[in-house]
Write a structure and sequence with these properties.
The complex is a heterodimer of chains A (about 180) and B (about 800). By secondary structure, chain A is α+β, with helices and mostly antiparallel strands. Chain A has a single domain, classed as Immunoglobulin-like (Sandwich). In chain A, about 15% of the residues lie in helices and about 40% in strands. Chain A is built from two helices and eleven strands. In chain A, the strands form two sheets. In chain A, strands 1, 2, 3, 5, 6, 8 and 9 form a seven-stranded antiparallel beta sheet that branches. The longest helix of chain A has 22 residues. Chain A is globular, with a radius of gyration of 27 Å. With about 800 residues, chain B is mainly β. Chain B has two domains: about 100 residues, Carboxypeptidase-like, regulatory domain (Immunoglobulin-like, Sandwich); about 575 residues, TonB-dependent receptor, beta-barrel domain (Maltoporin, Chain A, Beta Barrel). Chain B is built from seven helices and 43 strands. The longest helix of chain B has 24 residues. Chain B is globular. The chains are: A alpha+beta (about 180), B mainly beta (about 800). The interface between A and B is large, with 64 and 84 residues. Chain A: It comes from Hymenobacter gummosus.
Chain lengths: ~180, ~800
C-alpha cells in the first residue's frame, strides 16, 4: 500500500523543480540606454531679418527629457519695426548625431500645426507662410513683424492633429510646447 | 433517466428487502404513516429515507412523499433523511393508528465551503462573497471580466473607455485586489488603472468575489478582496461533450464565439480533458450623440486542461493564452495640460466619428500565458496534500500615437513594452478533522521578473520580486457555530534597476540606480459564522493585512495619458525614508437570510482602515518640453473605507421575483481630513423577473422575462477640485430588459436570450470612467446570446 502512495509525492517534488531552477536564474541584466523612442530635446527658432543682417536664434533645450536636470531656455531679442523670416527646428540631441525631427513634421505636414502665441498679443505679429497638401497652414516657415519696443513672451507649440486638422489650434495633442521670454528694442 | 431507474430499483429493492420482511416477521399491525414534504414549497419529497428506532426498520417515501410502517404499540423514534435537507427526528408513542408528518428544511449553506468534485472551490467563509454562475453568468457572456463582475453588489470597476474594466471591491482596486485565475494568482501589469485583467471570461464556469480582506489565504495583495475565476471542472463521467456560445451586440457590432469540447475515456476513467477557444471582435462604441472613434477591440484566446484523477491522488495540467488588442479612444489623446483643458471644455470628440472595426494608434496589445501543474494526494488519515506550480508570462505593448521624432513610429514599435515573468508555487496540507478542528497549513513562493523591451520607454524600471511565505488557517466547528483563525507571514524582496539620465557639461550621461527593499509582511484574521436559525446566518470577520509597496508606487516615472506620474522614491528628499508598507485593519459583518420561500437577502457592513495608504495625488504642475503637465505623485496617508452592500429578493407570487441591490462606500483621507478621489458613487439596482413553467414536452422551456433599473447617484463626496480634472458628473438611471428561453432542437437544449441595456439611450457619464472627461458612455445596446450544450455518443451508466 505504501508504494503507490509514494509516487504522487515524487510528482510533487518534480512540480517544485521548475521553481527552483527559475529562482536561480541570473537577474543581473541592466536596463540599457537604448534610444528613447520619442524625445524632442530641442526647439530652435531662427529669425533672419528680411533686409539682411545677422540671424537671431533662440533655443529651448532639455537633454535628459522630463525630470532630472532643468532645461536651458534662451531669450529672444529682436529689433523694433523689423520684418523677419522665421524657421523653427525640432531636434532630438540625445542621440548622436542629433535627429532632425523637422523633416518628419514636414513630411506629415497635413497632421501638424505650429502655433505661435505672443503675449501680450501686440508684442509682435507672426504669419505662417507654408501650407500642406490640403492648403492648410503648417507654420514651419513664418514671417515675424515687430513694431514698438516692448517685452513679453512667445509660446511655440507643435500640435499633432492626425485626421482632425482643420486649421484650428486647440485640437489634438502637443508634441512640443515651449515659451521664450522676448525683448523688442 | 438512468438515475431515476436506479432510484426506482433501489426503492423497490428496499421495499422488498426491508418492508416486506418486517411485515412477515411482525404480527403487529398498528399503522404508522406520514408524509415528508419540503418546508418551503410544501411539495412531497419522493425517495426520502425514513428509519424507525429501535429496530432500524427503514423505508423510502413514495412519489408523493408518503411512507408507512406496521408496528406494535410502544414508543418509537422516527428519523427522516433526504439529500439536500437537514435530517429530522421525532419521538412518538404509538397506541393506535398514528400519523406523523415531516417538513424538511433545505440544508443551509454548509460552512465548510462548497466542495465540487473535480475541482475544489476554496472560498473563505467568514467574509461576504458573491458568485456568478449558471444563468447569471450566461447573461454576462460577451462582456469583459471586470464588466461582468459588476453584477455582484459591492463590486464596481474603474473603466477606461468601453473595453477596459478594472475590478473594484469596496472602493479598492489594482494592487489591492487579488485575481485568482484557476487557483493561480494573476500576475502581470495589474498595477495600472487602465490595465484590465488579462483573462478570458468564457473560460469561467463560475466567478466568485470575496468581499473584504483575505490576506491570509491569498497573500497581502488581497486587501480589498479576491476575484476567483473558476473554469469548468474536468468531466467525471465517460463520454464527450461540447458547448458552443455565440454573442452578438448591436451597439458596437461585437461578435463573439466560444467553443469547448470535453471528454472522459471509458477505458481510462481517470483521464479527463477539455479544450476551449474563443474569438471576439468589436467595433467602435456608439454613444447617443456620436461614435467613440478607435474604441474597437478584439480577442483571441484558448485554453486546455488534462487531468488524471484517482480516488487518492490526481494530477492536472492547465494552459491558457489570452490575446487582445484594444483601441484607445482617440478623443482621449491629449498632449499636455493645455490640450487636456481644451478637450475637457469641449467635452466630446472633435468629430462625430463613424462605425469601424479598425484599430489605430493608440492601442494596447496584450498577451498572457498561464501554464499550471497541480497535484493532490489524499493521505488517508493524514489529510490531503496539494501542490501547485504555475508559470505566467505577461506581455503588454502600448502603441501610442506617433509623435515627431518617434523611432517607434518609423519602425511600428510600441512606445511602452512591458514583459513580466512570474513563477508561483504553493504547497497546502489540509489536516484531517481532529474532533471539531479542521484546517490547513501552506507554503507559497513567488518569483517575478519585470522588464521593458529595449528601445521602449522606461516607465516602470527593471525589477525582480521574490516572496516566500507560510500560512495557517484553523477552523473549529460545533453545531451552529464556526470559528476561524488564520496567520500568515511573508518575506518580500524587491530589487529594482532604474535607468537614470543626467546632463553634465551639456552632454547626456546614463546611469543605473539599484535599490533593494526587504520587508516582513504579516497577516492575521479571525472570523465566525453563526447559523442563528435555519434561515438566518451571521458572519463576522476581522483582519490585519500588511502590503509592501509595489515597484510602480516607488519608481514609476514619465508622461502617460496627459499626466506626469512619479513614484514616491523617484524624488524623495535625501535622507527621507522610502515608502513603507501599508497596514489594513478591517472588519466585516454580514447577515444572510436564505432559503425562505419569499424574502431572502444579505446585508454586509464593513470598515477598512489603512495606515499608510498609498495613493496618487495631484501635486502641482510639471514643466517639460511638451508643455505643462499635471504632476501625479505617489504619497502615503491614513485612510478609512466604510460601506454597506445590500441584496434583497422577494417573491410576491410563484415564479415572480423582485430583486434589489444597493452599494454605498464612504472613503476618507484621515490625514488631510478630506474625501478620496475615484470612490464609487452610491448605486442602486432593482429588477423584476417572471418565469413561466411549461409542459415537459413543450419545445420552449423555461421562458423568462426581466426588467431592470440601475440608478447611480452623483458622487458628491469628492476631494478638493485640484484632485480631479473635472467635477463629478451627474447621476443617471439606466433601464434594461431581458427575455430568454431554452428551445429543444432534437436533443440539444438551446439557450437563447435577448438583452437590452440603456434602453432609453440616456446620455450619461460614469464617475469611475477615466474617459468621462472626453466623451459620454455607451448608448443603447441589444445583445443576443446563444448557448448550446452538446453531448456526443452513447451515455454510459455512471
Amino acid at each position: 500500500m505504501k508504494k503507490p502512495l509514494f509516487r504522487p509525492f515524487l510528482a510533487a517534488l518534480l512540480l517544485a523543480a521548475p521553481l527552483l531552477t527559475t529562482s536561480c536564474k541570473n537577474d543581473d541584466d541592466n536596463p540599457t540606454p537604448d534610444d528613447e523612442n520619442e524625445l524632442i530635446t530641442t526647439v530652435r527658432y531662427t529669425l533672419t531679418p528680411a533686409g539682411g543682417g545677422t540671424p537671431v536664434t533662440v533655443e529651448y533645450k532639455d537633454l535628459d527629457g522630463a525630470g532630472g536636470t532643468a532645461p536651458t531656455i534662451g531669450t529672444l531679442t529682436l529689433a523694433a519695426n523689423t520684418t523677419y523670416t522665421g524657421a523653427v527646428t525640432f531636434l532630438d540631441e540625445s542621440k548622436s548625431p542629433a535627429d532632425n525631427i523637422t523633416a518628419e513634421v514636414n513630411e506629415e505636414s497635413d497632421e501638424h500645426l505650429v502655433v505661435y502665441v505672443p503675449t501680450p498679443a501686440n508684442l509682435l505679429s507672426i504669419t505662417r507662410t507654408d501650407r500642406d497638401r490640403n492648403n492648410l497652414e503648417v507654420g514651419l516657415s513664418t514671417r515675424l513683424v515687430t513694431t514698438t519696443a516692448a517685452t513679453g513672451t512667445l509660446k511655440i507649440n507643435l500640435q499633432h492633429q492626425p485626421g482632425i486638422k482643420n486649421g484650428q489650434p486647440n485640437l489634438g495633442s502637443a508634441d512640443a510646447e515651449v515659451t521664450f521670454p522676448v525683448t523688442v528694442r | 433517466m438512468l438515475f431515476r431507474l436506479a432510484a426506482a430499483l433501489l426503492w423497490a429493492g428496499l421495499c422488498l428487502g426491508v418492508v416486506y420482511p418486517t411485515a412477515a416477521q411482525s404480527t403487529c399491525t398498528l399503522p404508522l404513516a406520514g408524509r415528508v414534504t419540503d418546508h418551503e414549497s410544501g411539495e412531497g419529497l419522493a425517495g426520502a429515507t425514513v428509519v424507525l428506532l429501535p429496530g432500524q426498520e427503514a423505508t423510502q417515501t413514495d412519489s408523493e412523499g408518503h411512507f408507512h410502517f406496521h408496528v406494535c404499540a410502544g414508543t418509537y423514534r422516527v428519523q427522516v433523511h433526504f439529500i439536500g435537507y437537514q435530517p429530522e427526528e421525532a419521538e412518538l408513542r404509538v397506541t393506535g393508528a398514528a400519523v406523523r408528518n415531516f417538513a424538511l428544511h433545505p440544508e443551509a449553506i454548509r460552512l465548510q465551503g462548497a466542495v465540487v468534485r473535480g475541482s475544489r472551490v476554496e472560498a473563505p467563509t467568514p467574509q461576504a462573497s458573491g458568485t456568478l454562475s449558471g444563468q447569471a453568468l450566461q447573461s454576462t457572456r460577451g462582456q469583459v471580466l471586470g464588466e461582468a463582475l459588476q453584477k455582484i453588489a459591492g463590486v464596481t470597476a474603474i473603466q477606461t473607455g468601453p473595453s477596459v474594466f478594472k475590478p473594484m471591491i469596496h472602493g479598492l482596486h489594482s494592487n489591492r485586489v487579488a485575481i485568482m485565475n484557476n487557483g493561480v494568482r494573476q500576475e502581470g501589469q495589474q498595477w495600472g488603472q487602465e490595465h484590465g485583467p488579462e483573462i478570458d471570461p468564457f473560460v469561467a464556469s463560475e466567478l466568485t468575489v470575496v468581499k473584504g480582506a483575505a490576506g491570509v489565504r491569498y497573500g497581502s495583495d488581497a486587501v480589498g478582496g479576491v476575484v476567483l475565476v473558476q473554469p469548468r471542472p474536468l468531466r467525471d463521467s465517460a463520454g464527450t461533450g461540447a458547448e458552443l456560445n455565440l454573442v452578438g451586440m448591436s451597439n458596437n457590432g461585437l461578435g463573439a464565439a466560444s467553443a469547448s469540447v470535453e471528454g472522459n475515456l471509458r477505458r481510462l476513467p481517470a483521464l479527463s480533458w477539455w479544450v476551449q477557444g474563443s474569438i471576439k471582435q468589436a467595433g467602435n462604441t456608439r454613444t447617443p450623440d456620436y461614435w467613440l472613434a478607435n474604441t474597437a477591440f478584439q480577442e483571441r484566446n484558448f485554453s486546455a486542461a488534462l487531468g488524471w484523477r484517482k480516488e487518492r491522488y490526481g494530477l492536472e495540467a492547465f494552459y491558457s493564452q489570452f490575446n487582445s488588442r484594444l483601441g484607445i479612444l482617440s478623443a482621449a489623446v491629449v498632449g499636455n495640460q493645455t490640450d487636456l483643458q481644451a478637450a475637457i471644455s469641449r467635452g466630446r470628440p472633435a468629430t462625430d466619428g463613424q462605425f469601424s472595426y479598425a484599430i489605430d494608434r493608440p492601442y494596447q496589445q496584450l498577451r498572457h500565458d498561464l501554464a499550471k501543474l497541480t497535484g493532490f494526494w489524499k493521505t488517508g488519515n493524514g489529510g490531503r496534500l496539494t501542490a501547485t506550480v504555475a508559470n505566467q508570462q505577461d506581455f503588454r505593448d502600448e502603441f501610442d500615437v506617433v509623435r515627431g521624432g518617434s523611432t517607434a513610429g518609423r519602425r511600428n514599435l510600441p512606445q511602452l513594452s512591458y514583459l513580466n515573468y512570474t513563477t508561483t508555487a504553493d504547497l497546502v496540507w489540509e489536516h484531517p478533522h481532529w474532533g471539531p478542528f479542521s484546517g490547513s497549513v501552506g507554503l507559497s513562493g513567488t518569483y517575478q521578473r519585470n522588464r521593458y523591451a529595449p528601445g521602449s520607454r522606461q516607465f516602470i524600471p527593471f525589477y525582480t520580486n521574490q516572496v516566500g511565505g507560510a500560512f495557517l488557517i484553523e477552523r473549529w466547528q460545533q453545531r451552529r457555530l464556526l470559528l476561524e483563525a488564520g496567520l500568515r507571514l511573508d518575506r518580500r524582496d524587491l530589487q529594482t534597476r532604474r535607468l537614470t539620465r543626467t546632463v553634465v557639461d551639456d552632454t547626456l550621461r546614463y546611469g543605473v540606480e539599484q535599490q533593494q527593499f526587504r520587508y516582513w509582511t504579516p497577516a492575521a484574521s479571525l472570523g465566525a459564522v453563526y447559523d442563528a436559525s435555519t434561515h438566518l446566518s451571521l458572519r463576522a470577520d476581522a483582519g490585519l493585512v500588511r502590503r509592501a509597496p509595489a515597484a510602480n508606487e516607488r519608481l514609476a516615472q514619465g508622461v502617460h495619458n496627459a499626466i506626469y506620474e512619479e513614484g514616491y522614491d523617484v524624488s524623495r528628499p535625501d535622507g527621507a525614508a522610502p515608502l513603507s508598507p501599508e497596514t489594513s485593519y478591517n472588519l466585516g459583518l454580514t447577515a444572510t437570510l436564505h432559503d425562505n420561500p419569499r424574502l431572502n437577502g444579505e446585508l454586509t457592513v464593513y470598515q477598512n482602515h489603512i495606515d499608510g495608504y498609498i495613493y496618487q495625488v495631484v501635486a502641482g504642475s510639471f514643466q517639460t518640453i511638451q508643455g505643462l503637465f499635471p504632476l501625479w505623485r505617489t504619497q502615503q496617508t491614513d485612510a478609512v473605507f466604510r460601506g454597506a452592500d445590500l441584496l434583497l429578493t422577494y417573491a410576491p407570487a410563484p415564479r415572480w421575483l423582485l430583486s434589489g441591490r444597493a452599494a454605498v462606500v464612504r472613503a476618507r483621507n484621515l490625514t488631510l481630513n478630506d474625501y478620496l478621489v475615484f470612490v464609487p458613487a452610491d448605486r442602486f439596482e432593482a429588477s423584476l423577473r417572471r418565469e413561466w413553467t411549461r409542459q415537459p414536452t413543450a419545445r420552449l422551456q423555461r421562458p423568462f422575462a426581466q426588467l431592470s433599473l440601475t440608478a447611480v447617484r452623483r458622487q458628491d463626496r469628492t476631494p478638493g477640485a485640484e484632485y480631479d480634472l473635472q467635477a463629478a458628473p451627474a447621476g443617471y438611471q439606466l433601464f434594461g430588459a431581458e427575455v430568454g428561453a431554452t428551445v429543444r432542437l432534437g436533443n440539444v437544449p438551446l439557450e437563447l436570450s435577448l438583452a437590452g441595456t440603456n434602453l432609453l439611450n440616456a446620455r450619461y457619464r460614469e464617475y469611475l470612467n477615466r474617459f468621462r472627461y472626453y466623451a459620454q458612455d455607451q448608448g443603447r445596446n441589444l445583445t443576443l446570446r446563444l448557448r448550446a450544450p452538446l453531448e456526443f455518443g452513447r451515455r454510459s451508466a455512471r
